[in-house]
Design goal:
single chain; 307 residues; alpha+beta; Ribosomal Protein S5, domain 2; Alpha-Beta Plaits; 2 domains; 8-stranded mixed sheet; 4-stranded antiparallel sheet; 10 helices; 34% helix; binds adenosine-5'-triphosphate
């Protein structure tokens, strides 16, 4: 078909997710170390008479195909910025788990921005695109830039992080998703309950040791430094995830944790062979609906050749 543009966009995990206090605007102050992984959604945008969204992939029924789809919202926002009409047909080929804590919706928004900017031949500065991305969602700017980055504010303020080598991961995808707002509400509830033992805002300290380990490229130094403040909340809402985390470690992963707001669990492995073996064992154990291997950091949203 003529006149289309396709962007390929990676999933993310948070190697560190520090959650600070609730801000007046309803968001939490975050200090997070994002890492983009080689699990991708493809977002194609073509000129059409009206805005439409079609989703392909196993999880298509869990994704809205109306104007609430984040990719549609992204195209509308970019069109408003450019003074044009958002009359495009958006096609999403989805591989990133939905409501899995891997920023699937944000990836589609980032892909739609990059693809529509190309389709419309917009002369838009990177910073302008990132500002539109940040308005769409806290994780959208990172989905645009990819790699490894420190996120502050509500996650939208990014600094690139030096990293060496490739890390190999196994992802255990759960049968039922978790809503990100629910997980944040649960962490607030748990913290209010345990308030007495919690040092104020400890979570937002910068993960310096982890950043050094990433720069060294030593996966064995990275493993013990992985941290997610949201994990207790995700485990509280889906207690079965404890079994998944245990199974991954028993299968030989160096470390395992809930990815972002969950429920996907991410396991860091020593190398590519170890990841294949951990994935095989986890698949056999039946603790997850699906098991995938992925590596990273990988680049963010990028245009790919359209057939
Ligand atoms: P995050 O890691 O950013 O918190 P997530 O990976 O847990 O997000 P998403 O896959 O982004 O969650 O989906 C969250 C909800 O957003 C879904 O339940 C779905 O209804 C809605 N949604 C809107 N647009 C999309 C999209 N393009 N892809 C997936 N979900 C979408």
């Amino acid at each position: 078909m003529m006149g289309g543009a396709t962007a390929r966009v990676p999933a993310k995990i948070n190697l560190h997710l520090g959650v600070g206090p609730l801000r007046d605007d309803g968001f939490h102050e975050l200090s997070t170390l994002y890492c983009a992984l080689s699990l991708y959604d493809d977002v194609t945008v073509r000129a059409a008479d009206e805005l439409s969204v079609t989703v392909h992939g196993e999880s298509r029924r869990q994704v809205p195909s109306d104007a609430t789809n984040l990719a549609a919202r992204a195209v509308v926002a970019l069109a408003a910025h450019a003074g044009t009409d958002p009359r495009v047909e958006i096609t999403i080929n989805k591989s990133i788990p939905v409501a899995g804590g891997m920023a699937g919706g944000s990836a589609d928004a980032a892909g739609a921005l990059v693809a529509a900017a190309r389709l419309w031949r917009l002369d838009i500065e990177r910073d302008e695109l990132l500002a539109i991305a940040a308005d769409l969602g806290s994780d959208v700017p990172f989905s645009v830039v990819g790699g490894a980055a420190l996120g502050t504010g509500r996650g939208e303020r990014l600094l690139p992080v030096l990293h060496r080598g490739e890390m190999h991961w196994v992802l255990a995808v759960a049968g039922t998703g978790l809503s990100t707002p629910d997980v944040y509400r649960e962490i607030d509830r748990l913290r209010a309950r345990d308030d007495a033992d919690r040092p104020a805002a400890a979570g937002v300290a910068r993960p310096d040791a982890l950043m050094q380990a990433l720069a060294s490229g030593d996966v064995h130094a990275v493993a013990p430094l992985l941290h997610n403040d949201l994990q207790p909340a995700a485990l509280s809402l889906q207690p079965m995830l404890r079994r998944t985390l245990r199974a991954g470690r028993e299968a030989g992963a160096l470390a395992g944790m809930v990815s972002g707001s969950g429920p996907t669990c991410a396991f860091l492995c020593a190398d590519a062979d170890a990841a294949v073996s951990v994935a095989a064992e986890l698949s056999g154990s039946g603790v997850a609906k699906a098991v995938r291997t992925a590596s990273g950091p990988v680049p963010g949203a990028r245009l790919v050749q359209n057939n």
